[in-house]
Amino acid sequence: MKDLSMHIMDIAQNSISAGAGTIEVEISENRITDLYRIVISDNGKGMTAEYAAKVTDPYVTGRTTRKVGLGLPLLKQNAERTGGSLEIKSEPDKGTRVTAFFSLKNIDRPPLGDIAGTMVLLAAANLKIRFIYCHITEKDTFTFDTREVNAMLEGMPISEAGVIRFLKEMIRENLQEISIAG
Amino acid sequence: MGQVKSLADLRKIKEELQGRMSLRENSNNPESLVQVKVAMATCGIASGAKQVMDFFIEEFEKRNIQAVVTQTGCMGYCFAEPTVEITLPGHSPVVYGYVDTKKADDIIEKYIKNGELVDGIIPVNYETIEKK
User: Can you tell me the mean pLDDT for A117-127?
Assistant: First the structure.
């Protein structure tokens, strides 16, 4: 994966497959403590502790179309390269929470990439799922919640091209405003 | 410096979009629309499926084609990612492999607009090695 937003897109697909109604992405970064943390949590069907413990093994996957699953192993590898780690907490019927810790300044930390495009595409392709994206910097916090967007749209779908364009710009501008590390 | 956009601005542009939308309200039945599913599993994302999906959404708007663009999981053709499944109204789905923006442009112009098949179709009877 070239950047962190692609990992987020990938892990969010796991949540979608798990039948999640709400998917939350939280990125918190701090230049002083050198911490860059990504949390992706959902209220999907969850996994048993036993299964959750082995999902970072590439040869463990819930798919039937192929025998390998690289989403979580790749994220784990990237996190560990910067001296960070990957944590997975899951409970059957409750949901799953994937947390990736990175060193913010480490040269091996992939850049965040197009997070605005990623979140909006996810929302546009999965209209029934509520997506919440929260980005926290030392300066401020930005939150994007598709429930609020839908309330504004009054029935118009997020997948409308004009809405997609507006939301991408809105997220980009707001992230710039809170000075994200990129 | 200009004001940072907020959700309140969305309401303003909504009116404008509404006008354009009502023109095609009649065809709100998804069966009558072109359906595009972009495979978005690890393999697809790593090979650039996001750019392809962005391209389809933007181009459909520009070329005034009514279509639904969604995501799907891995179809088992990881070697041929990004893969895209296109369903024209009243037709069976067709899966295209190795779709970049250039190929996507070809698919829109030839297949979606004129129903002409384009190179790079993954046949439905494709079998994986394990099944043999």
Answer: 95
Contacts 24+ apart (CB under 8 A), A148-155: A148/B7, A149/A123, A149/B7, A149/B10, A152/B7, A152/B8, A152/B10, A152/B11, A152/B14, A153/B10, A153/B14, A154/B14
Task: Give contacts of A121 with chain B, Cβ < 8 Å.
Answer: 50, 53-54, 71
- CB-based contact B10 A163, cutoff 8 Å: yes
Q: Kind of pairing, strands B94-96 and A95-103?
A: unpaired
Evaluate whether B10 touches A145 at the Cβ level (below 8 Å): no
Give the model confidence (pLDDT) of A33-83 as tens digits.
999 999 999 999 999 988 888 888 888 777 666 666 789 999 999 999 999
Chunked mean pLDDT (size 10), chain B, 132 residues: 81 81 56 89 94 95 90 88 93 93 95 92 71 54
Is B85 within 8 Å of B37 (Cβ atoms)? yes
How many domains does the structure of chain B reveal? 1
Q: Which residues pair with B127 in a beta bridge?
A: none
Q: Is residue B6 one of the residues assigned to a domain?
A: no
Summarize pLDDT for B16-43 with one digit per residue, the tens: 888 766 555 545 566 678 999 999 999 9
Looking up residue B111, the CATH number of its domain turns out to be 3.40.30.10
What are the helix (H) ranges across chain B? Answer: 7-22, 42-46, 49-62, 101-106, 113-114
3-state class (DSSP) for residue A73:
helix
Nearest CA in chain A to B17: A162
Segments forming the whole domain that contains residue B107: 27-131
CB nearest B78 (choices: A13, A17, A66) = A66
Please indicate, yes or no, if residue B68 is contained in any of the structural domains: yes
Kindly state whether B75 is in contact with chain A, defined as any CB-CB distance less than 8 angstroms. yes
